Amino acid sequence: MRSVPATLLVKAVLVVGLLEGMLPAVGRVRPMQALWLALVVATFTYVVADRLVLARVGNAAAVFVDFGLTVPTLWVIARFLPGAHLPFGGALAAGGALTVAEILYHQYLLRKGVGVP
Question: What average pLDDT does the segment 45-57 reach?
């Protein structure tokens, strides 16, 4: 296990940056709500997709798992945030954009040796 804090920080910056820009555009989500959602998604997908799936099955499966976790996580949690509204289509768009970024992020992880058994 190499450089986990650094790679988690890179993931958090990637996810926060993308979702801070996208979520207000595709729904009614305030910046602090987008930040909170981004940190939840980054942590959850890092543990499941980047640490478990990427190491065992590979990049393609990890990308599908990232998308499969991101969309429902965004959509469901946003429903419980006061004043927030994120339609399912908005969660799909944000999840799709994040999935494209995850392809590059997984390549970064593999180059760093994180996720390699």
Answer: 91
